[in-house]
Amino acid sequence: MSLLILAYAIGFLVKLNCGSRVGSNWNQSCNERDKQALLSFKESLSDDTNYLSSWVGDDCCAWHGIGCNKQTGHVMKLDLQSGYLRGGHINHSLRNLRYLTYLDLSNNSFHGIRIPKFLGSFKDLTYLNLSHSNFIGLVPHQLGNLSSLKYLDLNGNFLLSIDSMGWFSRLSLLEHLDLSDMNLSRATDWFPAINMLPNSILVLRLHDSFLPNKMPHHLPVLNLTSLVFLDLSSNQLNSSFPLWVLNNSGLAHLNLRFNFFSGLLPQSIGSLTSLLELDLSDNDFIGPIPHSIGSLTSLINLGLLRNSLEGLIPKSIGSLTSLSELDLSGPSFQGLIPESIGTMRSLTILDLSSNHLQGNIPRSLGNLTSVLELKLSSNSLYGLIPESLGTLTSLTYLDLSDNKLQGIIPRSIRNLTSLSILLLSNNKLSDFPLEMGNFTELQYLSISSNAFRGSLPQTFCQSLELTALDASDNQLTSIPKCIGQLSNLTDLSLLSNLWEGVIAPSIGNLTYLSELYLSYNGLRGQIPDSIGALTSLTVLDLHANYFSGPIPQSIGNLTALSRLILWGSGFDGLIPESIGNLASLSILDIRENNFNGSIPQSIGNLSSLSKLDLSVNQFHGLIPQSIGNLTSLSVLDVFSNNLSGEIPAEIRNLSELTYLDISSNEFGGCLSESFCQLFKLQHLDVSDNKLTGDIPKCIGQLSNIESLSLYSNSWEGFLSEHHFLNLARLAVLEISSKSNLIWNISSDWVPPFPRWLLTQRRIHIITLQDTGISESILADWFASLLFMSSVEDVDLSNNDINGEMSLILAAPSGLQRLALSNNRLSGDFPSVLCNITSLTSLLFSNNNFSGELPLCLGNLLELRDFDVMNNNLSGVLPASFGSLGNLIYLNLHNNKFQGKLPLSFQDLKDLETLDVGRNNFSDTLPRWTGEQLPNLKYLILRSNNFYGTIPTQLCSLPSIQVLNLARNQITGNIPPCFGNFTAMIAASDYFYDPYEPHSSLRDGEAIIDDPKGYELNYTSTLDYLISFDLSYNNISGEVPRELMDLHQLTNLNLACNQLVGRIPNKIGNLNNLESLDLSENRLHGSIPQSLSDINSLSHLNLSFNDLSGRIPTGNQLQTLNDPSIYAGNRHLCGRPVLQPCEDETEPNNVHDYNEPESDTERLWFYAGIGPGLLVGFLGFCGSLHFIKSWRYLYFQSVEKVFDKYWSPSSYSI
């Protein structure tokens, strides 16, 4: 209640008490009849607190709460407010108090009874207060007989209602009416009745009274002109601002909060110059704040929150110099903050947050020396923080976050020693002042998402009361060593910075720490053992750093920990058994590290665990059986490890499991039917393992499954309708087998497959590779998919599907990827696909398509991958290919295309793979491949009819990894600038991401190359092929020395050309070379000894040149001992050819010693031969003579040999 209302109430009560006496010396004792009436009334009450203990004796005028007339002794006042009295009824004897003028029964508990009708008989009653007394039912109309009543308060009786308010018009002297917190929903005449009250009414309170929405905007006749206090808040009134209110020029308190008032605020609101409180918050007012608001110079409280006000904040608002709080947060004010706000020196709270304010923070705000809270967050303020804010020495809360402020924090900030909360996050601040001051009261500091660099000032460590520090997302490079002094810290976030070095052991001093975030930094070394001292820790997040070593054993001390997040941080070693002590842990995420060894058995102790992510590590061995104890687990992910053995049957105990991914491991055995007990499972991925046997039919009972991935295993048996029976929520279906899985869906199944897919309303990925689909059902598939707007990815490759796709007349409009490679599809390329403009990938390799590619392919503007390798397509390539600006992979290998490559290809700026090998193209080598295709990695033009010289523009391909121009008609020299191929010089910074394709190719894509003389199919291993092939052309000149700088080359093939000169001496620099072929050229001179330095070399061919001298030996060359490697070089000598070098005495005698043999050694050698032969012969003959069985066996063998080779039957005529 405002001060005004309090003053009014006190004055009113004093006026009512004149002429009465309460508990003082009386001239007349109380009236006996009145006393008996009071005693009877007392008997009807329960007085648990002895509130009426004074009601004894003869003089009732001396009793508590009783006031009497001095002359007559009649009771005039009965005041029992807040007596905690209870009663089942109000005794009728009370009506005998005929002279009663004041009755207050408020704040008692007359639970479940109605207001007595006889109260309407007190004709002299001027004050009636029955508030908060739990009366129920209808207010009796008899109260309208209280013609002398000035004060009526019925508020807070929630079960009390009024059905009609016509009787209020008889209360002609009423000054105060409070019907708040009642039910007036049936009183449809409430407003006309209120308007009929005399103009003496000063206070009208109808807060939360369920008022019917019937209040006129304007009244032709208005009696309500003397109001001082009007409260209509928390109703559902829906109209524009009630202009009749403005006729009450003396109005001091106006509360319209929590309604549905709408429209503009009237300019005439400035006429209410007596207003002390104005609350219009929580309505639907729109437009600007009227400039006339500045006329309300007496205003102390102003509430405009949660409307739709907008526009500029009027400068006149500065005239509200008595205002203590100004909260304009949340609407859509824009423009500048008025300088005039600096004149509002009474302000203690200024909140302009969450607007669209711009410009600088006014310096005049420094005049608000009484302000305690200053909130300017979530605007578009820019520039520097003004020094003048340093004068606000009473400030306890400063929030400038979420703006565009920049520069250094002003030095004057150190004066704000009373600050307890400082929020500067999400700006562009870059520097701290040299002295930040001693914020001894500071409890919460947030400077996140700025451009701070260097180190946090040491002075922050003096803020010993600090409980929360957030310096995340900056460019800070070091953590102050003194941070361990902030022993009251509960929340510490330093994530996303440039922190380097190690975590200091002093971190263990922060024993109250509850949450610690250090992720996305450059932290190295090991986690200190002192981390185990943080026994209050609930969140430990260190992911995305460069740690090494294992998790310390002391981690087991953190028994309050609920989240342990260490993914992608370089940890290695074993998981400590002590991790089983973390009984409160709900999330354990250590994916993408180098952890190895077995998963500890103690992990089964984490009974509160809901998420366990061990993916992308090097764990091996079995999944421990204790995993079955984690009955709260909803996510289990061990993707991409080296786990083996059978999947433990204990997994069936994980009844809460919704996500299970055990893919990319070495699991074997069968998929147990125990999986079918995981009824809540939504995601199941067992792909890329060594699972065998049948796919359990009961998989079809997992009705909550949304993603089912069973591909890349060795399934056998049949795939029938039972596997899909109750799968009604599929979004992803992926099945393939490396073995003999047979598609056996019954034709009697209703609906038949693939039309069953129509029942899957949310499916977007369908992969059924290697599943033995062999019928000509493609038209049925597309007819089914046509009605599935959600499907995005269809992969039916590696089956035996046949038929002509040209028969397909329609296709699903939202399709993004279609893979049909390795089937027996034939006919023309289906032009209907040109209508699916959402397509990003078309993979049709290894089929029997014929004819020309349609011109309409240029409509597929989103296409990234196009593969028709190994088909029978022919004709000229359509120029419309140039429209496919997003194309990355284009493979036309091994078809019958002819003509020239379209010039429009130069518009394919994102192209990384271009393979047109083994076709009939005839043209000069296209220069634009080097000029216009800067991202090209794989350029394969082999086995065509390209001619002319090699354009030097190809040297501009910095990313090229495979360049194959073999088997064409190319002439001229090899450009020396080929030595500038960056990707062939230095190893790429390729970051292995297990969630992305393992190579530059995506699933289903391939490149065929022949680095060792025979074709190989490259998919996931393509990134390891760095190849340069110009073989079988007419290239002349020397081998450029610059090629020896291509250190990453794995294949260099220059065979069958007209190259001359010597093999470069630095060929040993190609230390990654696996295959080298320089055969059938005219190279001369010696083979460089450095060739023996290439330890990875496994294929070498230098034949048919004019090389001479000794063949180098040593290292890997020792294993390449096939003489054909050097055939056709007559002047080569040494191993492995038979030609001895001039300094050798015997062709194939290589001595292990340098000294020549002496004559004595030769003499002893020949002297030993004779006796040795004699002893051996005598031993043989002696054995035959003395051992009868040996003698028989020997002669039988001799006879058999004689009979076989010398008998007459062995000859034929």
From TrEMBL:
Residues covered by the Leucine-rich repeat-containing N-terminal plant-type domain: 32-69
* Principal cellular location given in the protein's record: membrane
- The positions making up the signal sequence are 1-19
Q: Where are the transmembrane segments?
A: 1163-1187
Which key words tag this protein in UniProt?
A: Cell membrane, Glycoprotein, Leucine-rich repeat, Membrane, Phosphoprotein, Repeat, Signal, Transmembrane, Transmembrane helix
Q: Which Pfam families match?
A: LRR_1 (PF00560), LRR_8 (PF13855), LRRNT_2 (PF08263)
* SUPFAM superfamilies associated with the record: RNI-like (SSF52047)
Q: What is this protein called?
A: Leucine-rich repeat-containing N-terminal plant-type domain-containing protein
Q: Which organism is it from?
A: Daucus carota subsp. sativus (Carrot)
